[in-house]
Amino acid sequence: MKLALIGFGQAGGKVVDEFLAFDERIDGGFIESAIAVNSATADLQGLERVPRENRVLIGEARVKGHGVGADNELGAEIAESDSDEIHRALDSVSIHEIDAFLVVAGMGGGTGSGGAPVLAKHLQRIYTDPVYGLGILPATNEGGIYTLNAARSFQTFVDEVDNLLLFDNDVWRSAGESVQGGYDHINREIVERIGLLFAAGEVTQGDHVAESVVDSSEIINTLTNGITTIGYASETVETNDRGVLSSLDAGSGLFSSLTGGEEEIEGSTTNRMSSLIRKATLGRLTLPCDVSSADRGLVVAAGPPRYLNRKGIEHGRQWLEEETGSMEIRGGDFPTTTRDEVGAIVVLSGVTEVPRIDHLREVAIEAQERTEEVRASAESEFESLMDTGDELEELF
């Protein structure tokens, strides 16, 4: 599935940079164009792979390249006022070559959380291709302002995109990691899951063709409305260049004679694949949720062709149907020859039972009530001050 990637803000730009590295590493060919938008000059200069001509500085007249300081209302304002700058960069995108836009942003900062929903709204108005969002939620220990920004951003972002894929930093930060090391690890986790999903189906000449291709229509039909979480599980396997072990595991005559033949090999690969699908679903999702609340789903098996057991994929897909209670669970495989892992990607779309989202909504409601109380108190104090001034005028 061909994407036009747009990273908004510091986190968004870094994730897009990592997407470009991943696409090159797996020879995926799923990125048609990559753009980074920011209000901070230093953040744009720190990118390694986004072409310099595709790095867009906005808000220069107001913040002079120094960022918006976690003020997402200001981030939204400058995204709106400088939308022409962003659209000029989009003019270089071969729209007829892409299947969708993916707007990537950290939802706790200022530029990305404020500007990404604004950009998504403009893209929806101008183009007919789907517009997806990839939002990265801040960890709760990052500070109250970042949680509040995420609460505000979520309310608008989810309404402006066809589907919002969410990644919760709270789940993925490891104790003892440095801040930079933690974010680098998280970015790789994000990109591996979502990159493999969108790379599936992008077959080029000489590639192994999947038995059941996961093309762009399968992904588009899964990512319709609401929010999405993604699970992934993998195992390292022996590949052709590792000698006799790869031959044994692949089902050579010697292995067959030692273990009872092809049926045992078939059973082993079937069990591995169905087990990986369960692990991907019940392990660490990008956004923890009640799996049964998913409205739609997609299962993608990725890895060396010999390990992509069709029966195992089908068993896993049927199990996911039972877990979700949804009949809209699609499935397929993505043969790769550049990795020594076989894995399962599980996409759960339209999920509704999400504790973190419930918490964000509570934060937004509390912030609104607090704002109204502060405003009412300020107005009362101002009126009291004015009354005191009138009384003083009467005395003198």
Automatic annotation (TrEMBL):
GO terms for molecular function: GTP binding; GTPase activity. One of its GO terms (biological process) is regulation of cell shape. GO terms for cellular component: cell division site; cytoplasm; microtubule. It comes from the Archaea. Keywords: Cell cycle, Cell division, Cell shape, Cytoplasm, GTP-binding, Nucleotide-binding. The keyword Cytoplasm applies. It is found in: Cytoplasm. GTP binds at Q10, A11, G12, G13, K14, G110, T111, G112, E142, N169, N187. Residues 2-206 form the Tubulin/FtsZ GTPase domain. Pfam families: CetZ_C, Tubulin. Belongs to the CetZ family. Involved in cell shape control. This is Tubulin-like protein CetZ. It comes from Natrinema salaciae.
